[in-house]
């Protein structure tokens, strides 16, 4: 029979085979997932192939780790690593021991998450203005998480320690390919329960792949659209998912979420007692100050009966003065009223109309007389003007034997030079006209010659 070897021997054989194969460092590239620092300073993560189903565990020891390398090792980052494959016998696994990290850009998963985050942020799902305030004293707290995990126990213990609140669990799968749909259905079921004041969506810590369900778009939209305030408590403080941005509040851990939601009754009672004591002391101080002020006022005022008597005397004096002034005022007003009545009677409408009628009649007679005189003077002026006009009339000249000679156009002739031989003429007499023709034109110097 073939001789069997021990597990330790098998591990040493495996380690020698890998050491012989990787005498020199090799470069490998892929996408980082599940990055986590160790307490001793080493850095562990998984390098995943983006084109096929293949992964390898990677460790960078503290002696090789630089701050720049630590910054480059992030979940979803594409990197190129230099190192050697080795076998770690205590755990029976192979791992890639890297000593150098170079960036190759963001991984496909990280890029997809970044695009989804930008899309949802552009739609306003992460807007702080749309976030709902948490209730101050919720009676029923809904919890969406695993039925068997530590999250529900932590939340229940914290709530009980802080004074109690009714915890309503909607169990869901929080890891794996069906986790997003399971959490979304549980959240929708709690939203339909009447009386649920606030909902905690939580799970414990894990790798980035374990928390990937809480980056699902449908789940993020369900959290943002929930009518009840939602607190996201996914992973640890360093873990950030898209549900953290969409929720109305974020807690670093499920226990912190319970502390955030359930008020501490002991602290509330202590605060109430402290405020009550302060209020009581303030009231006593206020009463003391008011009593002191009242004593000062009493001493300043003295006996109120003396003050009332003095004021009553003053009132009597003012009443007498008022009555006297009122009598004088009534007398003056009576006299003024009599004077106004006399003036009013003098201006009575009947009397005023009679005076005006008499004035109008006299004015009418004066107007008629003035009109007759004006007409007489006008007739006289017209007679004189008519006599003057008659004296200047051409007809009067014609009556004395003169005549008027007109040319063919009817214009009166004043000079012989205005016509020529053969022109027709009209000679106007006092009675009738004569028609003539110019036989000759005599110059002015020859007038009278034969």
Name its key features.
single chain; alpha/beta; OB fold (Dihydrolipoamide Acetyltransferase, E2P); Rossmann fold; 5-stranded mixed beta barrel; 13 strands
Report a brief summary of the structure.
The mean pLDDT is 85. Helix 7 (242-246) links the parallel strand 9 and strand 10 (249-250).
Radius of gyration: 64 Å
Helix and strand sequence:
HEEEHEEHEHEHEHEHEHHHHHEEE
Largest sheet: 5 strands, mixed, barrel
Number of helix segments?
A: 12
For the termini, the CA-CA separation is 200 Å
Shape, principal axes of CA atoms = elongated
Please bin the fraction of helical residues: 40-55%
Provide a descriptive summary of the structure in words.
By secondary structure, the chain is α/β, with parallel strands linked by helices. It folds into 4 domains: 7-106, Nucleic acid-binding proteins (OB fold (Dihydrolipoamide Acetyltransferase, E2P), Beta Barrel); 132-263, Rossmann fold; 269-303; 398-446, no CATH class. The chain has 12 helices and 13 strands. It has a 5-stranded mixed beta barrel with strand order 1-2-3-5-4. Strands 7-6-8-9-10 form a 5-stranded parallel sheet. A hairpin with a 5-residue loop joins strand 1 (26-37) and strand 2 (43-48). Helix 4 packs parallel to helix 8 (254-261) and helix 5 packs parallel to helix 6. The protein is elongated and about 190 Å long. 20% of the residues are buried.
């Amino acid at each position: 029979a073939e001789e069997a070897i021990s597990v330790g021997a098998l591990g040493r054989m495996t380690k020698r085979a890998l050491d012989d194969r990787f005498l020199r460092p090799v470069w490998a590239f892929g996408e980082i997932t599940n990055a986590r620092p160790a307490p001793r300073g080493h850095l562990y993560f998984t390098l995943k192939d983006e084109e096929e189903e293949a992964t390898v565990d990677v460790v960078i020891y503290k002696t090789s780790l630089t701050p720049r390398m630590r910054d480059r090792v992030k979940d979803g980052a594409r990197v190129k690593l230099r190192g050697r494959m080795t076998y770690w016998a205590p755990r029976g696994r192979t791992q890639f021991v890297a000593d150098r990290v170079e960036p190759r850009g963001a991984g496909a998963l990280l890029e997809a998450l970044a695009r989804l985050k930008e899309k949802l942020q552009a739609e306003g799902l992460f807007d702080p203005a749309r976030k709902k305030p948490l209730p101050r004293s919720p009676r029923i707290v809904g919890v969406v998480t695993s039925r068997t995990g530590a999250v529900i126990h932590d939340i229940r213990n914290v709530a009980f320690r802080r004074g109690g609140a009714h915890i309503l669990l909607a169990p869901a799968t929080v890891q794996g390919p069906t986790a997003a749909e399971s959490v979304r259905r549980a959240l929708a079921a709690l939203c339909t329960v009447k009386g649920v004041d606030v909902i905690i969506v939580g799970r414990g810590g894990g790798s980035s792949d374990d928390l990937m369900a809480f980056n699902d778009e449908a789940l993020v939209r369900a959290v943002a659209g929930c009518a009840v305030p939602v607190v996201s408590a996914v992973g640890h403080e360093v873990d950030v998912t898209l549900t953290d941005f969409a929720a109305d509040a974020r807690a670093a851990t499920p226990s912190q979420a319970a502390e955030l939601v359930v008020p501490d009754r002991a602290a509330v009672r202590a605060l109430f007692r402290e405020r009550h004591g302060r209020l009581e002391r303030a009231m006593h101080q206020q009463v003391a100050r008011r009593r002191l002020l009242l004593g000062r006022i009493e001493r300043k005022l003295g006996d109120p009966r003396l003050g009332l008597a003095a004021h009553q005397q003053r009132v009597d004096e003012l009443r007498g003065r008022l009555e006297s002034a009122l009598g004088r005022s009534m007398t003056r007003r009576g006299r003024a009223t009599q004077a106004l009545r006399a003036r009013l009677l003098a201006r009575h409408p009947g009397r005023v109309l009679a005076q005006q009628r008499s004035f109008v009649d006299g004015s009418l007679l004066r107007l008629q007389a003035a009109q007759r005189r004006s007409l007489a003077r006008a007739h006289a002026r017209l007679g004189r003007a008519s006599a003057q006009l008659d004296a200047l009339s051409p007809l009067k000249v014609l009556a004395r034997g003169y005549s008027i000679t007109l040319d063919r156009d009817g214009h009166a002739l004043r000079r012989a030079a205005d016509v020529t031989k053969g022109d027709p003429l009209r000679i106007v007499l006092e009675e009738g006209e004569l028609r003539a023709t110019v036989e000759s034109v005599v110059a002015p110097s020859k007038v009278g010659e034969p």
